[in-house]
Structure formats: structure tokens, C-alpha cells
Specification:
Elements lengths: L3 E3 L5 E3 L23 E10 L5 E10 L2
Antiparallel strand pairs: 1-2, 1-3, 3-4
């Protein structure tokens, strides 16, 4: 599973790749007006300078 937003069937519905970024906090706004209300999952992947990798999958609920 690559970074992005997925529906409950595991289909990727949105993808963003910002490439290499400096350490810090970032906010991302995604227009999901074309998607139906429901449960989605997002996956974030990051690599550290020391080669360590971080990946997380979180759930989000879209309510219109």
C-alpha cells in the first residue's frame, strides 16, 4: 500500500507526493467534495536521514 487516501475497498482515491521535505509540522488540505460520505483511510510514509522508515495508516470519516 503506497501513501494516499483509500476507500473501504482498498482502492486509492487520492494521492499526494511532496517529495523530500525538511523536518517539521505540515498541514494538508484535500478537497473531498467529489467523494461520498463514509469511512476512508490515509497512509503516511516518511524516511529519516538515518535510513529509518515510518509508516502509519489512520482512519478518517467524511461527513457531508
Amino acid at each position: 500500500m503506497t501513501p494516499g487516501i483509500y476507500n473501504v475497498l482498498g482502492q486509492k482515491v487520492e494521492y499526494r507526493n511532496h517529495g523530500m521535505m525538511n523536518a517539521g509540522r505540515y498541514n494538508e488540505s484535500i478537497n473531498m467534495s467529489r467523494f461520498a460520505s463514509g469511512v476512508y483511510f490515509y497512509r503516511v510514509v516518511a524516511s529519516g536521514i538515518d535510513g529509518q522508515k515510518f509508516a502509519a495508516i489512520k482512519e478518517l470519516m467524511l461527513i457531508k
